[in-house]
Design goal:
Blueprint lengths: L2 E8 L3 H12 L4 E5 L12 H6 L1 H20 L14 H25 L3 E13 L2 E8 L3 E10 L3 E3 L12 E2 L1 H4 L8 E5 L3 H12 L3 E5 L11 H14 L2 E3 L3 E7 L4 E6 L5 E6 L1 E4 L3 E3 L32 E3 L10 H15 L13 E3 L4 E6 L2 H7 L3 E7 L4 H6 L5 E7 L5 E8 L2 H13 L4 H6 L9 H10 L7
Parallel strand pairs: 1-2, 1-5, 2-3, 5-16, 7-14, 8-9, 8-14, 9-10
Antiparallel strand pairs: 3-4, 4-5, 6-15, 11-12, 12-13, 17-18, 18-21, 19-20, 20-21
Helix pairs in contact: 1-8, 3-4, 3-6
Length: 475
């Protein structure tokens, strides 16, 4: 007997569970299907973000940062800390506890909002008069139908050909988050968000970390001035980053992994490491979705083909998050999930791709929104730039972290903010002001005229806005 719903959401990651909740808030009968399991076999909604991505990585970054502060920076504050040690098992256990709390929180939100949750894998079965039949395979097999289906199945880590993940020696983000001890040497292929964050965690705990990047430039998507500042800080910390490499072979041995590659000069090099993290991007996850059963169109990458409103090629079928075009970011998925639920309800959901913030949670943190200086130059846009260094900010000096800067880019004629780029302490929080400003089409003068609390890191945002007009007050 099929169970009838107004909306079925396949996947309970950030895009899926948020879409389900918003649809339920709008008065629809909603089912959400997700197959993630915890270590006891129970449901673990939240997707990659909650289970092996955003949340657990931030937990390890925080723990490792405290450890580095105790070992290297407490003395500056007059604090004597001797024989500081890291219990890796306890650190990982804390991370696991945070993940479970997040899983349980989502299950509570489903109950609160009257979303019916099914623990298992959802797949299209056939088209029926009431819309679509979805088969759930899991702890108990169920058949569901709904006129509207939202696909939010996320993404998987991309493996390097010839170096498949075993999560013991060759690691994806999953394995990198679950190491039971600090490796003596660690290799990272890919200097993107995951590579830099995980490389930073284990470097702080004592591993010798080498990051191999195929591109000739560091963080090519980041504003060039900001990327250079970040690279300088990582070099100083001892994070070894090699650019422009070509990997020729990855070979797993009894004691670790050897990576043969040509460096930027074309010289043959072999890197021997205990563990290897491969972070060369992610691929849309449509495995087992059975799209052929209903004629759902996928592209050559396996992503669901959608229009600008996240509509698939079938009536009543939508897709959001990592499984469609656009940046693979949890908050982008959330916004799309809300927008789709509202569109189904006849409202006008909206996602502005031009004001989606990006953050890399290393130390220093890197955050940005809008266009970079190199993009503006390439597009022939006339602009003004203003920067302000954290070394001139009183709160940053009190924190003992003055690395980096805030940078504003504004239209040369209208002064509208075109991009804001930051590297430094807590910029993951500071970037929100820039997002709000750009969403309201603010000018740099608007930010320059707003009173910011003193002393605060946010004053650097105000001063960078002032710098667009060459009138900083504290530098």
């Amino acid at each position: 007997m099929s169970k009838q719903f107004d909306v079925i959401v396949i996947g309970a990651g950030p895009g899926g569970y948020i879409a389900a909740i918003r649809a339920a808030q709008l008065g629809m009968q909603v089912a959400c299907i997700d197959e993630w399991k915890n270590d006891k076999g129970g449901p673990a909604p939240g997707g990659t973000c909650t289970n092996v991505g955003c949340i657990p990585s931030k937990a390890l970054l925080q723990s490792s940062e405290y450890f580095e502060h105790a070992n290297k920076h407490f003395a500056d504050h007059g604090i004597t800390a001797k024989d500081v040690k890291m219990d890796v098992q306890k650190m990982v256990g804390r991370k696991d506890t945070i993940v479970r709390q997040s899983n349980d929180g989502i299950l509570y939100l489903f109950k609160k909002n009257k979303v019916t949750f099914f623990h298992g894998r959802g797949a299209f079965s056939k088209t029926v008069e009431g819309g679509y039949e979805i088969q759930v395979t899991g702890a108990s097999n169920e058949t569901l139908t709904a006129r509207q289906v939202i696909i939010a199945t996320g993404s998987n880590a991309r493996a390097l050909p010839g170096a498949e993940f075993d999560e013991e020696t060759i690691l994806s983000n999953d394995g990198a988050l679950a190491l039971g001890s600090v490796p003596r040497t660690l290799g990272v292929i890919g200097s993107g968000v995951i590579g830099l964050e995980m490389g930073s965690v284990w470097r702080r705990l004592g591993a010798q970390v080498t990051v191999l990047e195929g591109l000739p430039t560091f963080l090519g998507a980041v504003d060039e001035q900001i990327a250079k500042e970040a690279k300088k800080a990582f070099d100083k910390q001892g994070l070894k980053i090699e650019l422009g490499v070509k990997i020729s072979e990855v070979k797993k041995g009894k004691k670790g992994v050897s990576v043969a590659y040509a460096n930027a000069k074309g010289e043959a090099v072999t890197l021997e490491v205990d563990k290897l993290i491969v972070s060369i991007g992610r691929v849309p996850n449509t495995i087992g979705l059975n799209p052929d059963a209903v004629g759902l169109k996928l592209d050559e990458r396996g992503a669901v083909v959608v229009d600008e409103n996240c509509r698939a090629n079938l009536p009543g079928v939508w897709a959001v998050g990592d499984v469609v075009r656009g940046p693979m970011l949890a908050h982008k998925a959330e916004e799309e999930g809300v927008a789709v639920a509202e569109r189904i309800a006849g409202q006008h959901g909206h996602v502005n791709f031009n004001t989606i913030p990006w953050v890399i949670y290393t130390s220093p943190e890197i955050a940005w929104v809008g266009r970079t200086e190199q993009q503006l130059k390439a597009d022939g846009v006339k602009y003004k730039a203003g920067t302000f260094p954290f070394m001139a900010n009183g709160r940053a000096r009190a924190l003992g972290d003055t690395t980096g800067m805030v940078k504003f880019l504004a239209d040369a004629e209208t002064d509208e903010i075109l991009g804001v780029h930051m590297v430094g302490p807590m910029v993951s929080e500071l970037i929100a002001e820039a997002v709000v400003a750009m969403e309201f089409k603010a000018s740099s003068e608007d930010i320059a005229r707003i009173c910011h609390a003193h002393p605060s890191l946010s004053e650097s945002t105000k001063e960078a806005a002032l710098a667009v007009d060459k009138r900083t007050l504290n530098f």
